[in-house]
Design a protein that fits this description.
The structure holds 2 protein chains of 2 kinds. Helix content of chain A is 34%, strand content 11%. By secondary structure, chain A is α+β, with helices and mostly antiparallel strands. In chain A, the strands form 4 sheets. A two-stranded antiparallel ribbon of chain A has the order 1-4. A two-stranded antiparallel sheet of chain A has the order 2-3. Chain A has a two-stranded antiparallel sheet with strand order 5-8. In chain A, strand 6 and strand 7 form a beta hairpin. In chain A, helix 2 crosses helix 3 and helix 2 packs antiparallel against helix 4. The longest helix of chain A is centred in the N-terminal third of the chain and has 27 residues. Chain B is mainly alpha-helical. Helices cover 75% and strands 0% of the residues of chain B. Chain B is built from 10 helices and no strands. In chain B, helix 1 runs parallel beside helix 8, helix 3 crosses helix 7 and helix 8 packs across helix 9. Classes of the chains: A alpha+beta, B mainly alpha. The interface between A and B is medium-sized, with 17 and 21 residues.
């Protein structure tokens, strides 16, 4: 009985002393933290993707409160997060269009072919270093998934030889665009009707045609069809100015190789 | 005396490495070794806490739990008391760092609370008692264990980088191949058996 009592007292006393020390420490060494920082960190996307330009979500929250950083920089969080931060900070939220990644390449396995068989490390960066990539078209998606590994949201995957963006999951943070050695991925404002040219081949039409059956040949048909002059053909590849585009989709119907698509409907 | 301490120190690093030979603290070993900088951060934090925890628990064991006068013997309370001490110590350390060395707090930040439940810390404090080390020997042993942990983490983060880039069969992807790699590294440490005794001629 005596031993049990002794043990109980010993552990209790050690625990109590520890508790007292900790309580004292927390009072003496109290570091004032602006509670808005924690609240904002809570409403941010929490992926630490770095799209805002800060080193992470906590860092961005801190810079909003302490340095007056803009509140609509969290692209993954979108308008919802911006308005939540606005509520915490007591200011108006700026408007935000959701941004989504678009893979500007249509060269799936059946449309294009390989120049050689690559058996090195499974990385776009590596294959790009060997004669500019193993694809017949040296501008297109390499298909080794550097973007998949860069994505924090599991929103981009290699399907049928090229990267495919999951429109639901994509937050437009641009991590995949930065990882792509061929710069095939662009982050554009998501619009239900506005199309994008899904090819970046800058070779002349005949060469493009040989490499890939779904490549922009620079035929100018889309540019002529566009009622708003939103389409320009430069370096043998068409480009649609999203500002000027009104979403009539005449170019989609005109394109002989079918590389103009509305990403939102894919 | 110095030779004895050196033997303890180096055998903790090479021969009795806590992670690779005694298989303690495997969880952070696999979890935090992905990147070199976080591996080093975690190891330094572990070393720091190990030395501190040993300095705190050794006197408690010797004077409180099993006093030499033999008035009572409560060695069976060792585990629970040591865990309590380590938890308090880590919490205290965290608030001290937060207040006075914010830069260090920021770099160790995530790892400090993790260490509270790290079995290597409890392991080193308990084994110091079991081996009958005196206070100085215990501290040296704890420091050696920490450095050994650092060596294991740094070595393995290098191995891990190669493993990440390799293309193992699908069934071995991620964790299985990492465990196999860890086994190989551990096996290589078996080769250090007896080296310290021979160098110092003990």
């Amino acid at each position: 009985m005596n031993m049990i009592l002794m043990a109980v007292i010993l552990v209790t006393v050690i625990g109590l002393i520890g508790a007292i020390i900790l309580v004292m420490a927390s009072i003496v060494m109290y570091v004032p933290v602006d509670e808005r920082v924690e609240q904002i960190t809570g409403v941010l996307a929490g992926a630490n993707c770095g799209a805002c330009g800060c080193a992470g979500c906590a860092d961005y929250a801190k810079s909003i409160v302490e340095e007056g950083n803009a509140i609509n920089k969290c692209i993954p969080g979108g308008a919802k997060t911006a308005s939540a931060i606005a509520e915490i900070m007591g200011v108006e939220a700026g408007s935000m269009t959701p941004m989504k990644a678009v893979v500007a390449c249509s060269g799936t396995c059946e449309k294009t072919s390989k120049r050689y068989t690559f058996e090195g490390i499974s990385s776009c960066q590596a294959v790009k270093g060997l004669y500019g990539g193993d694809g017949a078209c040296q501008y297109g998606c390499l298909g080794y998934g550097d973007c998949t590994r860069a994505c924090a949201f599991d929103a981009i995957h290699i399907v049928d030889g090229i990267a495919k963006v999951d429109r639901e999951k994509c937050t437009g943070c641009g991590a995949c665009a930065a990882a792509c050695p061929n710069h095939v991925i662009e982050v554009v404002p998501e619009h239900k009707r506005k199309p994008v040219v899904l090819c970046q081949n800058k070779d002349k039409g005949t060469q493009t045609r040989k490499a890939c059956s779904a490549g922009c040949i620079g035929c100018m048909k889309c540019a002529k069809a566009c009622p708003k002059q939103a389409i320009t053909v430069e370096n043998n590849v068409a480009y649609i100015d999203q500002e000027k585009c009104v979403g009539c989709q005449l170019c989609v119907k005109e394109c002989p190789v079918g590389v103009i698509h509305v990403p939102a409907n894919m | 005396m110095a030779v004895e301490l050196a033997v303890i120190f180096f055998s903790m690093i090479l021969v009795d490495n806590y992670v690779l030979v005694q298989f303690l603290g495997i969880c952070p070993f696999l979890g935090v070794s992905k990147r070199l900088d976080s591996a080093v951060g975690m190891s330094l934090a572990v070393t720091f806490v190990m030395v501190l925890a040993t300095a705190a628990t050794w006197p408690i064991q010797m004077f409180l739990l099993t006093p030499e006068s033999g008035a009572w013997d409560m060695g069976y309370l060792q585990t629970i008391v040591f865990i309590l001490i380590i938890a308090v110590l880590v919490q205290l350390l965290e608030s001290i760092l937060k207040k006075y060395i914010p830069a260090l707090y920021k770099s160790l930040g995530v790892y400090l609370p993790l260490i509270t439940t790290n079995c290597t810390i409890l392991g080193v404090t308990v084994l110091n008692i079991d081996n009958g080390y005196n206070f100085l020997e215990s501290i040296v042993c704890a420091a050696g264990a920490g450095i050994g942990y650092l060596v294991a983490m740094v070595l393995f983060s290098g191995v891990r980088r190669r493993v990440e880039e390799a293309m193992p069969p699908k069934c071995f992807k991620d964790l299985p191949i990492t465990l196999v790699a860890a086994a190989m590294v551990s096996l290589s440490f078996m080769g250090f058996g007896g080296i310290v005794e021979n160098i110092f001629g003990v």
